[in-house]
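Can't paste images in this forum, so I'm doing it all in text. The chain is below; anyone willing to post the predicted structure tokens underneath?
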Amino acid sequence: MVSFTDPKAFADPEDSALVAEAKKRVEPPVEYNYTERDVILYNLGIGATEQELQWTFEAHDEFAALPTFGVIPQFPCSTSIPLDFLPNFNPAKLLHGEQYLSIKAPIPVSGELVNEARILEVLDKGKAAAVTIIIETRDKHTGQLIFENQSTVFIRGSGGFGGKRVGKDRGAATAPNAPPKRNPDVVVEEKTTTLQAALYRLSGDYNPLHIQPEFAAIGGFDKPILHGLCSMGISAKHVLKTFGPYKDIKVRFAGVVYPGETIVTEMWKEGNTVIFRVKVKERNSIALSSAAVTLEDSSKAKL
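Text version of the structure:
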């Protein structure tokens, strides 16, 4: 087991000196405390309804967090890792590229968690850098590992530092997940609401890009965009309702969704993997690609 407190834990002989030094930094753990109210707010934020009481009513016998809640406790921790070791670093040029979430234990509906984050990989893409942060989320009192996240961001203008260009194969976290050359097995559509981003941001991502028109314009958008992790949560809910529980999920953020647009989730079941792709119906554009979940138990999976 890797120790997040070991400065050399994520060392890579292929790293440039710049990256090797940055990887040695050990940031203090970040706590995340939450109640059933936070779980309900998250579930509502990714489209759970008053008809789905298992996700929106705390007294329901099967009340639960939707699985992608696992991206919420880690968020303040992963976004606090300094990236200013990169040349020409400008936070305004940062894009969330990919997200991988592995669910290691049943998700408590309330609790006190502790997150630890480290730089896992830094790639030199020439005109940009790609940085992957790995975060472990544990129960504060028992130490049980609940979630592992790997979050990859692209920083435009920060490449050319002589780093390695190609990343290591990390299994499901880096799988290409190309859709099979057949029609999807299942397609689910869900129209988002115009207030979807305003609601989702209350789960912890307060980036003004998702609420303030002036800030969105600076980013080159006509209006505020939906959080990528919200689009991921909505489509992951479609996969859950169609095929049953899963133990991990990986997506690439390929395009944007505007609040009020319709998310179309195309799904292909391949053994215990469900590959999926997310499109925006109104613009026929791809929002999520290279996406898949690993089902908990393929023999019990629906369909």
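Residues 228-243 form the longest helix (16 residues). The helical segments are 17-23, 36-45, 53-56, 75-78, 196-200, 213-218, 228-243.
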